[in-house]
Amino acid sequence: MTNASTSNTAVSGATKSTINPQEAAHFGTLAAEWWDPNGSSAMLHRLNPVRLGYIREAINLHFGTDVASLKPLAGKRALDVGCGAGLVCEPLARMGAKVTGLDAAPENIAAATAHAEPQRLDIDYRHQGIETFEESGFDLVTSLEVIEHVDDPKGFVAGLAHGLAEDGLMILSTPNRTAMSKLMLVELAEMTGRIPKGTHHHDQFFMPDELEKLLSEADLKVIDTTGISYSPSHGFSLSDNLALNYLMTVARA
């Protein structure tokens, strides 16, 4: 679930790519199983409802939509960066948004397109990096479990900011760099096969204050930070505890 491309950026004029080719290749090898809830992305499927619940609540608060509405994003544009095979893009499309999804791995884009087509979901999937993505004015920009996989986090955040409308909403999520995340997400999860080996690199995780600093440098402000906790009996849930993973609601400063 990482972002991609190597051509000149429309954001800063630099040629540096945000993409880590090894990360893109790793996630590309998982593409065929991405939609299998019992496959290599099983933990992501368990995490996704929690992330989507948070996103929906943030949408309601930011745009003042009816909590009972089935199409809270009707008439709005959404951009999901590092979209994988579409686990977030498809729900956003069902909420009424015109969705664009970017990903570094062409295998992921192929899997995402193949899964969306039979459901008649009109999602614009692109094998492209945020640093070469020229479009802007998106009402909603999401990037979940992605920034820890890129080579140039500052450039990546600048690209996200470029895509966001002046009154838009951004949602990010990423693991925290703590002893707990190292134990749970790297050592135990990968050792037991719950997450494919090589998925996480603890030294690339971001502490909330580090991510907030990057966002501030791109003239963005954090509105909310909420943790994601995990227990074997109850699975993933939103929490005040940020030690494992966390979500951020972001807007323009």
Descriptive notes:
With 253 residues, the protein is of the alpha/beta class. It contains seven helices and eight strands. An eight-stranded mixed β-sheet has the order 3-2-1-4-5-8-6-7. Strand 4, helix 5 and strand 5 form a beta-alpha-beta unit. The longest helix is centred in the first third of the chain and has 22 residues. It is globular.
Give me some keywords for this one.
8 strands; eight-stranded mixed beta sheet; globular; alpha/beta; 253 residues
Strand-residue proportion? 15-25%
The tally of strands reads 8
Estimate the global geometry from the Cα principal axes. globular
Mean pLDDT: 89
Could you say which structural class the secondary elements and strand pairing correspond to? alpha/beta
